[in-house]
Amino acid sequence: QAGRRGQKTLCMQARDRFFKAYFTAMEGLFVEAEPGEPGFEAQQGKYWKKAMRPSLVKDRQFTGIERKLKHQLPESFKTFYKAHHSLEEMFDTVLIRIAGNERFSNLSVLKFHLFEDGLSDRLLAKNQLQFGLYQDHFPVCLNMNHHPEDPPISLIEHDFENDKVDIIHPHLFSSFEKMLDCLASYLTEGDDSKFNEIDSDSTFTAMFE
Q1: Where are the alpha helices (DSSP H) in the chain?
Q2: Distance CA 81, CA 57 (A)
Q3: What value does the mean pLDDT take over residues 51-76?
Q4: Neighbour-count burial of 122, counting CB atoms closer than 10 A to its CB (0-12 exposed, 13-18 middle, 19+ buried)
Q5: Positive or negative CA dihedral for 54, 60, 63, 65?
Q6: Which of 77, 207, 61, 97 lies closest to 143, judged by CA?
Q7: pLDDT of res. 33
Q8: Sheet of 153-159, strands arranged across
Q9: Distances (CA, A) of 25 to 30, 98, 181
Q10: What pLDDT is stored for residue 148 in this prediction?
């Protein structure tokens, strides 16, 4: 039981580190006031606190999604969406774009990626639950073929010529919270130099070797 509490705390820390890094990195785009105008200097370095709006999403909003998926979504994944709203349709971290959670959107962007994207049926047939994109083209998914209670993150390739869908990196990151920690590091450091230290099982950096 103590171990479970520790795991939950770790998950919360990864989630919050991501939100802080993301909203800090995007501060220039989201702050309405321009430099030199009243209020801008007062918000610098603190904007992420203002941007982290409490989410309206509750557990019941995942019930229909999970029924349709025939999969139980990992708690760390649901907690991410129950924590804070996004200020745009997607969380754009440059490396990976994650389905956003705008206020009153009722998880519509996540539902689109899970059920309405052109590859959704084929991804679901392979137990891949899409929640984002790499380079605006490659689906990023929860790989429910492995440890579905805390699955790794997979990268999918669509061969347009042969209309074939392949799981090219079944363990792009070892878990959703490890991915969040890596992306927080990228947003803070500006590179992926700490990815292997954060997630020793990640194959992300191996893509470029």
Answers
A1: 2-25, 27-30, 40-43, 47-51, 60-69, 75-83, 108-111, 120-125, 176-189, 195-198
A2: 7
A3: 92
A4: middle
A5: negative
A6: 77
A7: 41
A8: 90-92, 96-99, 128-134, 138-143, 153-159, 164-173
A9: 10, 15, 15
A10: 94
Is residue 93 within 8 A of residue 187, CB to CB? The reply is yes
Q: What is the pTM of this model?
A: 0.85
| CA 12/CA 66 separation, integer angstroms | 22
> Where do we find the tokens 């139980």?
72
pLDDT over threshold 50, residue 89: yes
Higher pLDDT, 8 or 96: 96
pLDDT at position 87 = 82
The residue written with tokens 């470029």 in the block is 208
Kindly state the tokens that stand for 53. 């709006």
Residue 102's φ and ψ, nearest 5 degrees, are -65, 150
Three-class SS state of 139? strand
Rg (CA), the chain: 17
Q: Whole-angstrom Cα distance, residue 80 to residue 163?
A: 33
Q: Does residue 71 have a pLDDT over 50? A: yes
pLDDT reported for residue 195: 96
Report the distance separating Cα 198 and Cα 208, nearest Å.
18
Beta bridge partners of 92: 97
Helix (H, G, I), strand (E, B) or coil at 30: helix
Q: Which two tokens stand for residue 188?
A: 């803070």
pLDDT at 170: 95
Q: Per DSSP, what are the bridge partners of residue 86?
A: 102
